[in-house]
């Protein structure tokens, strides 16, 4: 009895060890993966406003994501009063080389995304000119109209999985915020 | 022979032939101690059906003369031993040797009495199979809620972490079938991966003084124990099914057990559980469904002198997490806090969308023992665990079905243990531990891992002595030493490494010399030496009153998240940062307990005080701006803390059929360094239960229960202001204020029907949250987003065969 037991136990231990080895064997195959690049990171937002030859660009870039380097705002040009601009949003992940265009992904999943624009400059209005597959606004393409001169801020928010359709304000649309940046704008 | 370690009786039979005549039969016996084969003097022997008594003499011998042919019921009593009854059919004079033995619980089925303890001098409470079955479709954390002083830290309603005296996660040891669970237990939203249906009994040890399992049980231990089966030929099983109106789901649990007279046994158990979206009183909690498939298999051989036990369990859990809790930045959080309704409410569904968790846990062990006469018992245990945790968030494009967290933790250990019970008054338990652990942050997540790859080696040794000072007093003392070596691979951002954290000066030895772009690969390696100790005293008085006093010194090495975490945590909209400078946590816990164990009137009053030096906590320190907007930054830091309180339990038999049970837990936690309350401490709570039991009427049982959790008024104020760009003003974000007091009522009814010869059917009908009360619990991490569960009707059917 004793000997058969010992044999049984030895056998069992052997089986266990073998199974453990099989379970863990695959864990050595993937070295050097400790620091992967952040594949879905948005590092850069370009909002390009065009009215004929009058081009204004609002650029925000934060190349290391939530890392220690402070983000950079780069605003080229001032808006002109009483004008209408065609606005285009571009989202990039510049940690990849070449930079990955996140705007494409947003457009592909247009029904799960929406941009929201707000400004405290009086008379400045931004209208979304594109729609998703369901006919709800998306906001990659916009039309920006200025009235008088002045200055203030312009905020761009991108929501992932907001309620669509909504009342047009980002806070009541719910979802999770993927982009929220505020530019200082001047209208001459 | 004065043994306080109770339970006795193991019988070997030897009969001799003597002439037999009616009413002239002599029953001769000898009572012997198994361990040293010494005769037992002064055991009382009663033939209870004949009302005759005798005692054993110096040689352990007793004799009962002039017995008639027929059945006699013999009752053998010895001081500090549990009374043992033996029924014998006698037709001639016989001679019987009766061995008294103190390790019955390891050999035979034990009838667990309310006062049977795992550790004689520790302050512990247990839940039995009947209670476990009430929670068959719930979690370990839910079941343990029935014990005073135990609360839980939860993420929604299905991810529930038990909390003892305000402490959880790495500060609690969960021992499943004698194996310490390693399932990434450091995470606040990582529920223990155990299937409570696989266990027969769960003990909660509130002190830090069970050194056998580790030196870091700062909060206490939870022991999940299997059943010991009787050594007889038998085949039996049960099937338990449960259905719930809330979540439109339930579970099915089946187990089958085969035992042999030779000592072999086998058990197979399976459990399947599925729920759709749960609901709060007025709305659906979208994406809170769950699915769980568990199984366990066990076989072994049991005899008094030797045996083995092999066990394997598989747990596969998939938890949906409230969709509304996936938020982007602090403004989203603020909107959620201000809004009475969750941001997303959809129709009921069984589909689990994102966010969700999928966890698979394998646990296997084999244990073998051999007992040596006049010495003790040697046990060797080998075990392994594999934990694979995947957490899915809302993502875009090709990464949609890719987890953001994918970790595989492999743990294996070898534990020899020697129990010396040769000495009359002293029992020694000593052993070694060797453990290896490997964490693998599996590639392909498209994010930098929350915690890095690491290898961890542990070695420990301990010795625990239980000494019986006299018949009513027992002292236990123990000491344990542990060595831990953690060796990790992690890339840091160069600016962070050199400037933000100053690690290049603090830990130059971790640098490999290379710099890859903006990253620096490092090899953090830490070794720790831990000493822990325990001291316990138990003193029994008349009327079943017992006084216990425990002191425990525990030290805990920092867990991987405290050392390494770095990055955004979505469901709480915060950036969490761990530090390599975090050191050990050392706790001194004192606990007293005055208990009266009786079914008529019993109580336990247990005050405690826990002083923790270097208590690691995660607190907000500032705000950082990213492309997604503003996020609060939460950092780990170390402070000195104290937690003290009292647990009170009372049970009273009001009449033959009515019993009343009540409990109260009071607790206060202080951050001594900053002189403010400690974060996430359970509030004062109390519960009552009135039960009606009629054993003659199909074991009918009707219970009304109530639980009140008061508002936690002692909390640290970590509220802050943040700029909301959309409305262009600063907004106040109230993350600290606690929800108001709430009371929940429940009804449970059950009855047992004998439907066929060898089996019975138990029917149960329960209502939870009878009044459909809307409430939020401050220890639920999703309390910012939605109310807790509404009313639930539950129907259970258990078939024993």
Description:
The complex is a heterodimer of chains A (188) and B (801). Chain A contains 3 helices and 10 strands, in the order αβββββαββββαβ. Chain A has 188 residues and is of the alpha+beta class. In chain A, strands 1, 2, 3, 4, 5, 7 and 8 form a 7-stranded antiparallel sheet that branches. Chain A is 19% helix and 38% strand. In chain A, strand 1 and strand 2 form a beta hairpin. Chain A has a single domain (44-187), classed as Immunoglobulin-like (Sandwich), CATH 2.60.40. Chain B has 801 residues and is mainly beta. Chain B has 3 domains: 10-102, Sandwich (Immunoglobulin-like), CATH 2.60.40.10; 124-223, Ferric Hydroxamate Uptake Protein, Chain A, domain 1, CATH 2.170.130.10; 224-800, Beta Barrel (Maltoporin, Chain A), CATH 2.40.170.20. Chain B contains 7 helices and 45 strands. In chain B, the strands form 7 sheets. Chain B has a 22-stranded antiparallel barrel. Residues 1-21 and 102-115 of chain B have low confidence and may be disordered. The interface between A and B is large, with 60 and 69 residues.
Helix content of chain B: under 10%
CATH class of the largest domain in chain B reads Mainly Beta
Mean pLDDT of chain A: 82
Q: Poorly predicted ranges of chain A (pLDDT <50, ≥5 residues)? A: 23-35
For the sheet with most strands of chain A, the description reads:
7 strands, antiparallel
Strand content of chain A: 35-45%
Please state roughly what percent of the residues of chain B sit in beta strands, choosing from under 5%, 5-15%, 15-25%, 25-35%, 35-45% or over 45%: over 45%
Q: State the oligomer.
A: heterodimer
Helix count of chain A?
3
Enter the CATH topology name of chain A. Answer: Immunoglobulin-like
Shape of chain B: globular
